[in-house]
Amino acid sequence: RKEVEQDPGPFNVPEGATVAFNCTYSNSASQSFFWYRQDCRKEPKLLMSVYSSGNEDGRFTAQLNRASQYISLLIRDSKLSDSATYLCVVNMYALNFGKGTSLLVTP
Amino acid sequence: NAGVTQTPKFQVLKTGQSMTLQCAQDMNHNSMYWYRQDPGMGLRLIYYSASEGTTDKGEVPNGYNVSRLNKREFSLRLESAAPSQTSVYFCASSEEWAGRLSGANVLTFGAGSRLTVL
Fold first, then answer.
1. Residues A75-97 pLDDT 10s
2. How close A33 gets to chain B, by Cα (Å)?
3. Are B103 and A91 a contacting pair at CB < 8 A?
C-alpha cells in the first residue's frame, strides 16, 4: 500500500461548482498534513495546512479524519483559476507527497 | 523576495556527461531538499540537508551526490547522467527539517530545472 494515495482525476467541473478531493495515508502516527497546489509546469506551493479541528481559508476547507486516515479538500464556488494539480502531503518522518489530483474548471 | 533560486532552468545532456544543479535560498532556512518529479510518479526526495553540515539520502539517491556548501546553498550533482535521470528537479527549503514529527514546516520550492538526458 502506498503511503499517500490520491485519485489522479482529472476532475472536470463547471465554474461555480463545489468539488472535493480525498487523500488517504498509511501511517497512523503521521502528525502534519498539508495541501499544496501545482500549476502546469510550475513549482508546488502551499495551499493550506490541515489541522485536527479542520480549517477554512475563503472558499477552501480542509478536514482531517484520523480514524479513517484521510484528509480532504473542499473547494466551493470554483473559479477558472482553481485549475491545477492538488498535492496531498503527509509528514511521516519525512514529507510524503501524493501524486496529485488534477482539477480543470471549465466556463 | 527571491525565495529559492535554481539554475539552470533547462539543460540537455548526453549520456555519461556530468553536471551540477545549483540552488540558493535567501530565507535563512536551516533545511534544504532536492526532489525529482516524473509523470505518474509524483515528487520523490533525492537528498536532503536537515541543517548546514549534514546531508542524508532520500527515497531515490542513486546516481546523485549533493553538497551543502553553506547555509544558503545546496547543490545536486549528476556524475554520469543516464536517460532515466530525465526529469524535472525541484530544490526546496524549510525553516526546520520537515521530517520532524509534530512539525509544521512548510516547504518553499524553487521554479524547477528541466533536465533531458539523451
1. 999 999 999 999 999 987 778 89
2. 8
3. yes
- Which tens digit of pLDDT belongs to each residue from A39-77? 999 999 999 999 888 899 999 999 999 999 999 999 999
pLDDT in tens, B55-113: 999 999 999 999 999 999 999 999 999 999 999 999 999 988 877 655 557 899 999 99
Number of Cβ pairs < 8 A linking chain A and chain B: 54
- Cross-chain Cβ contact B109/A97 below 8 Å: no
Output the DSSP codes for A30-87.
--EEEEEEE-TTS-EEEEEEE-TT-EEETTEEEEEETTTTEEEEEE-S--GGG-EEEE
CB contact under 8 A, B101 and A45: no
How big is chain B by its Cα radius of gyration, in Å? Answer: 13
- For residue range B2-22, list pLDDT tens digits in order: 799 999 999 999 999 999 999
Question: How far does A51 lie from chain B, in Å, by closest CA?
Answer: 10
A35: Cα separation from own chain's centroid: 4
- Bond prior to A44 in cis (omega within 30° of 0): no
Nearest C-alpha in B relative to A2: B41
Kindly list the residues from chain A whose CB atom is less than 8 angstroms away from the CB atom of residue B105: 32
